[in-house]
Amino acid sequence: xxxxxxxxxxSNRDIIITWSDDSKRRYSPSLLRxxxxxxLCKEKQSEPTIPTKPLALPVISMAEAxxxxxxxMQPVGNYAYNIHFSDGHTSGIFGFTxxxxxxxxxxxxx
Length: 110
Ligand SMILES: [Zn+2]
What we know:
The chain is α+β, with helices and mostly antiparallel strands.
């Protein structure tokens, strides 16, 4: 089934998409950021996780310390959204099929 978004609303930092079958799905900024399908992120995800410096201490960068937010969602044709994140990442094109898959279904009563 190919669903299309009919409405998008914000709920705190999350967004909620209402789909053409009347279902609602919730998306947090971090969920979307992790699922980003762009070439850059795909490359990162497939990198082997062999630590090069075993004693390196974990570091939290400035960007990571800020709460991640969805800065902008721009339709791409009629099949996807380009999502801009507050960490400056703007190259992710999220197809409707991907969005439909990763969203967590909201209760209809909410
Ligand atoms: Zn990306």
